[in-house]
Amino acid sequence: MRRKLAIVLAAGMTAGLLAGCGSGESAGTKDTAEAASSQKGTQAQTESGEKVNIEFWHCMGSSNGELIQEIVDSFNASQDEVVVKAVHQGSYTDAGTKMQAALAAGEAPVLAQMEIGMLGIFADADQLVDLQKFVDAEGYDIGDFMPGLLDASYYNDALVALPHSRSVPVLYYNKDRFKEAGLDENKPPVTWDELKEDSGKLTVEGTYGYSCPLDQWYYMSLVMNAGGTIFNEQANGIGFDGESGTKPLYLWKEMIEDGTMHVPSGQDYNSSEACRNAFAGGTAAMVMQSSAQLKGLEKTCEFQVGVGAIPKDTTLSYPAGGSNLLMFKGHTEEEEAAGWEFLKFMTDTENALKWANGTGYLPTRQSCMESDTFKKMIEEDPNLQIIVDQVQYSTYKTPFIPQYQEAKEIFANEIQKCILEDNYTPEQAVESMKDRVAKLF
């Protein structure tokens, strides 16, 4: 490990010198000597035996948080040069807010797990380290990451993240309730019409056939399944101005009105938790949730859990969700090098498989899919294969623009207003989203 850190640090210094020359600036003898002296000093400091301490902020609670800590502990025990301290910062939203405050105060951690939509905010503000310098320095095989997941790690051609906790929205259903209702337990609804029909058969004695958080991610899943996109091709306005935006809202309003859809209380992550509780408690027979909830639901529910694709209107298309691992600027080269070693460990094939198997997040590497370990995981839990199969429908590349987070808040606000207020129509909601998002640009 000590030698690896020294090599990475030396490569970083060399890359900096080459970049200076390439920009047209002259690297004179004095500058070169000073750089060499600085490089030598940094290596000597790394080899002095002192441990490099860095912080890693994450957003995983409960059993997922315990698994994060387990992987961090494994890294710390695997070598004696770097100590990583994992710090839980709450939800994605909480962590994003805290990170902005930490950056303003000059107290950001070296590494953090951040929701993919926040990448544009930090990258646009030039707060993220371009990891390509480490990749180039040691010939690291970045191509082993799943292409669709790796795409969401770049900003203006700079590699500013590595894929980690990536997910897709899926439909979970209660197989026992399906059998009781005379439905095929291995055939969840495929279309919106089938969703409505099955929900009607599953709604009995104070229970509901279906539940879904009034959340922008699940709404956007239905928007894309109706032929829309989150943003237009120019990335300066919404991409669902029309029926692709109104039809999902009409679907929900109709199902709520006929008593087949349960509306979970709360907002954002609280609403998702309420939805999962309704499913586990038998209040709802089907729910739209993240694939990352697979293992938690299988452990919690006292019935057999089935998994299916999100029912479609005209096509199958999803916005991939989850988070990436980022390195923030403002730290020493030694700390950056230490952070890179941990990033590699956290995302290697072994730990990517451990993370996927313990949570339900997607395996991020192609080598994961080819491994005997993954094949065994699929044999033990076929639901995981169904989730992995959905990746092919998550091809939409969300533009990483600074306005994305504000746009998501607008979407969520308008969705809830439309569903909860009888006199606010889907057309009014979509028109308002269009106008309010346009003003962000």
Mean pLDDT: 87
Highest CATH level, the class of the largest domain:
Alpha Beta
- What percent of residues are in strands? 5-15%
Structural class: alpha/beta
Q: How is the main sheet built?
A: 5 strands, mixed
What's the β-strand tally?
14
Instruction: Note the gap between the termini.
Output: 46 Å
Q: Could you say which overall geometry the principal axes of the C-alpha atoms support?
A: globular
Radius of gyration: 24 Å
CATH superfamily of the largest domain: Periplasmic binding protein-like II
Helix percent band: 40-55%
In CATH, the architecture of the largest domain is 3-Layer(aba) Sandwich
Poorly predicted regions are 2-45
Secondary structure tally, helices: 20
Strand order across the largest sheet:
2-1-3-14-6
Count of distinct structural domains: 2
CATH topology type of the largest domain: D-Maltodextrin-Binding Protein, domain 2
Describe the structure.
The chain has helices spanning 2-22, 29-46, 62-78, 92-104, 119-124, 132-138, 147-150, 175-180, 192-202, 216-225, 243-257, 268-280, 294-300, 333-347, 349-359, 366-370, 372-380, 382-389, 404-420, 426-440, and strands at 52-58, 82-88, 111-115, 154-155, 158-159, 162-167, 169-174, 210-211, 229-231, 238-239, 261-262, 286-290, 305-308, 321-327. With 441 residues, it is α/β, with parallel strands linked by helices. It has two domains: 51-165 and 319-390, Periplasmic binding protein-like II (D-Maltodextrin-Binding Protein, domain 2, 3-Layer(aba) Sandwich); 168-318 and 401-436, Periplasmic binding protein-like II (D-Maltodextrin-Binding Protein, domain 2, 3-Layer(aba) Sandwich). The protein has a five-stranded mixed beta sheet with strand order 2-1-3-14-6. The model is unreliable at 2-45 (pLDDT under 50). Keywords: Signal, Transport. Residues 35-47 have a biased composition (Polar residues). This is Sn-glycerol 3-phosphate ABC transporter substrate-binding protein. Residues 1-19 form the signal peptide.
